[in-house]
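Task: sequence design from structure.
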């Protein structure tokens, strides 16, 4: 079987995180992704744990299934080689700043006259028609500018970032979706287009689906903060011997849980007798959950909560997940041999198709590995 994007050729001029995560999604779905790297390679080749120079863990995980071609786009020869590839490609994606793309002839206007059906995707930090268009941006900067770091810092002593590069990867996912939509449009109309997915607006829009809350209305009915997720007592709960993650949500679930906990009186309390009141006063209810869960062990609570159909799970570390035999049996965690880096552990795609194959066992390329194949 072939992936659902089999036959799609992508010229990937991205580096670090946001763009490579976008093209990772496309490669997993069967697209042929040609990673155009500068002579020194993507900086991600040197990020994280390293056993083989130029093949660090982050690069291996973010660039599986891609082909690597080295071109110096600051030279006329490099740009000429790229233009020879352009007629063979469906998509070009980059995460450069607008002026940087213009300096090397990679603005949309430079390419569209040669390929009017090209899907061209730019992933800048800030939108290209705004005052910050050419400001440099990385994930930490965008987490701060988007409000994500402030949101993450609620109930903490000092500001903090989400531990994973959330803005980068979220933007990459959004860009992959936008590219697939533009390809669909091209296939129907024959017309390509420029797609732009800026990191700042993508991260703001992601959070404000629920966090806009009272500011959804004009005039505002309350602050831009969703009270349930901001509740200080919303956290993994201590049990008698560990921690447990519990999410009591619907009215039926609260009725079953509070009855089990011996606090059925709260079901008739005027602060909790509707879903709206339970959300507004979530922290008080979560304090009850925290108090009750300390009384039994994690295993005892898991059995009781599963019996009454209340969502719960033990607090897992990544070591727990990677050693879980269920994930190995399903193929989500797998092992394969890289021709240079040796035996590697891989995390599979979460996308499951009944009639298409998602391939995650293709290795990440060495620098320039596919120059002869592609440029010939």
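Answer:
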């Amino acid at each position: 079987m072939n992936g659902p994007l089999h036959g799609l050729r992508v010229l990937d001029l991205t580096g670090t995180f946001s763009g490579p995560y976008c093209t990772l999604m496309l490669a997993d779905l069967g697209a042929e992704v040609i990673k155009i790297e500068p002579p020194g390679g993507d900086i991600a080749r040197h990020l994280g744990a390293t056993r083989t120079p130029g093949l660090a863990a982050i690069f291996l995980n973010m660039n599986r299934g891609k082909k690597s071609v080295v071109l110096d786009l600051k030279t006329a020869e490099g740009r000429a080689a790229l233009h020879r590839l352009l007629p063979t490609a469906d998509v070009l994606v980059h995460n450069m700043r607008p002026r940087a793309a213009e300096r090397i002839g990679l603005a949309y206007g430079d390419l569209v006259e040669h390929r009017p059906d090209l899907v061209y995707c730019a992933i800048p930090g800030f939108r290209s028609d705004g005052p910050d268009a050419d400001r440099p941006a990385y994930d930490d900067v965008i987490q701060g500018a988007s409000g994500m770091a402030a949101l993450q810092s609620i109930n903490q002593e000092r500001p903090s970032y989400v531990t994973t590069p959330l803005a980068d990867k979220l933007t990459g996912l959004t860009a992959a979706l936008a590219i697939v939509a533009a390809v669909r449009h091209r296939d129907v109309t024959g017309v390509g287009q420029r797609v732009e997915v800026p990191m700042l607006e993508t991260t703001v829009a992601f959070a404000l689906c629920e966090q806009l809350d009272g500011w959804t209305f004009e005039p505002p009915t309350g602050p831009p903060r969703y009270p349930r997720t901001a509740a200080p007592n919303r956290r993994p709960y201590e049990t008698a011997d560990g921690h447990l993650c519990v999410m009591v949500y619907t009215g039926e679930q609260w009725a079953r849980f509070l009855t089990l906990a011996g606090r059925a009186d709260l079901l008739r309390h005027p602060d909790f007798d509707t879903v709206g009141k339970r959300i507004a006063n979530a922290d008080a209810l979560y304090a009850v959950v925290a108090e009750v869960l300390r009384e039994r062990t994690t295993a005892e609570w898991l059995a009781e909560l599963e019996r009454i159909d209340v969502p719960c799970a033990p607090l897992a570390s990544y070591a727990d997940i990677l050693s879980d035999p269920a994930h190995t049996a399903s193929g989500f965690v797998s092992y394969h041999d890289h021709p240079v880096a040796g035996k590697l552990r891989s995390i599979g795609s979460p996308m499951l198709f009944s009639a298409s194959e998602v391939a995650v066992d293709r290795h990440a390329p060495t620098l320039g590995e596919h120059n002869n194949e592609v440029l010939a």
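The chain has a mean pLDDT of 96.
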